[in-house]
Amino acid sequence: FSPDGSRLAWRAEIGGFGNSPFAAVVDGKAGPLYFGIRQLTFSPDSKHLAYIAVLQDRTECVVRDGVEGTHYSEIPICASDQSHDRHFEYGAATPMIHFSGDSQHIAYIAIKRFSGATGSNPDHQTYFVVDGVATAYNGIYGGSGTVNGVAISPDGARVAHIVNLKMDWNSLYAAPNKAFAVEINGKLDPPHPYIS
């Protein structure tokens, strides 16, 4: 249900159980078909809906109000997310699609993998995406993520996220152990051993 209770959205497998495509059904109307759909998320004012769509080629994108964003290798929903799973929502997962309090802005994490890269292999590019504009970060992806902990101020004027400053797992917890920092509107605060 939307926050005001006036709208309802769900994920439906169209055409039978098994290998059939999925659609987001919003207010009783089915949207475009995808290989999988995850993280149906209403905006605070209940006027907008966003979700992660898994395409047939296994790339992923955020769909906002029926419009597809840029295609990435992965839009993670939590650090332990099983990428490209088309059936399950992972109920304990931390939502990675974030609307601002005024419902005008959206932010999420995205990943593009290089040829042959899988899992926590460092051969990838992590992005922090705000209103469709992607900022690239180099580094590892895995339990902490290169960019994580997305937050948007209620008026949408400030966006913050946690950045992993280390470039490999061997140095992540090595002394001096200040591997994480919060970035607010592009400015890094002082680093700390861990941030949550």
Describe the structure.
This protein is an all-beta fold. The chain has one helix at residues 169-172, and strands spanning 9-13, 22-26, 29-34, 36-42, 49-54, 60-64, 67-68, 98-99, 106-113, 124-130, 133-137, 147-152, 159-164, 180-184, 187-188. The protein has a four-stranded antiparallel β-sheet, with no helix packed on it. The chain is globular. Residues 79-93 and 139-146 have low confidence and may be disordered.
Present the secondary structure layout:
Elements lengths: L8 E5 L8 E5 L2 E6 L1 E7 L6 E6 L5 E5 L2 E2 L29 E2 L6 E8 L10 E7 L2 E5 L9 E6 L6 E6 L4 H4 L7 E5 L2 E2 L8
Antiparallel strand pairs: 1-2, 2-3, 4-5, 5-6, 6-7, 8-9, 9-10, 10-11, 12-13, 13-14, 14-15
Summarize the structure.
This protein is mainly β.
What features would you highlight for this structure?
2% helix; mainly beta; four-stranded antiparallel sheet; globular
